[in-house]
Inverse folding.
């Protein structure tokens, strides 16, 4: 059975994104609240629908829920831009896109604390979700609004969706 790499080394940052130390993924997700940076990409098509990924049941955080199209950790020594390109290619097979930074904020759950760099892009070509995901699809915005608060989406996605007022 697949599982997340709990020994993966992640940078620990302050709220401005300055690296102050490093820790393993397992240490960052064990309730320690070590602030670590992540990238998100909201993928829209030209009809204004938003692509969401389905998290597989083996994930250690929010298994089986619908989530932001792309979300991933910034590796130790990696820039936001490089991490975003890597994660988008790994998760959706997209290599040609133009990201727009929407916001940077701190997200905190009962298990972790992340410095989120949220982006968006419009993309109308084929999307090929990787085996890391349990598929994905474009959602009309009214369908997302109808399902908010019903346990369909990750809390992180719902929080960011409301923050960005899509």
């Amino acid at each position: 059975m697949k599982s997340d790499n709990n020994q993966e080394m992640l940078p620990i940052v302050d709220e401005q994104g300055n690296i102050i130390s490093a820790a393993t993924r397992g240490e960052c997700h064990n309730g320690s609240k070590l602030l670590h940076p992540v990238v998100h990409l909201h993928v829209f098509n030209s009809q204004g629908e938003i692509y969401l990924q389905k998290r597989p049941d083996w994930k250690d955080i929010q298994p089986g829920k619908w989530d932001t199209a792309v979300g991933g950790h910034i590796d130790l020594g990696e820039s936001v831009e490089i991490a975003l390109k890597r994660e988008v290619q790994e998760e959706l097979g997209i290599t040609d896109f133009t990201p727009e930074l929407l916001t940077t904020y701190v997200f905190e759950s009962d298990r972790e604390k992340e410095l989120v760099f949220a982006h968006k892009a419009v993309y109308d070509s084929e999307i090929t979700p990787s085996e890391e995901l349990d598929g994905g699809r474009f959602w009309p915005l009214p369908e997302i609004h109808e399902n908010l608060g019903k346990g369909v989406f990750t809390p992180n996605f719902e929080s960011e969706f409301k923050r960005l007022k899509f």
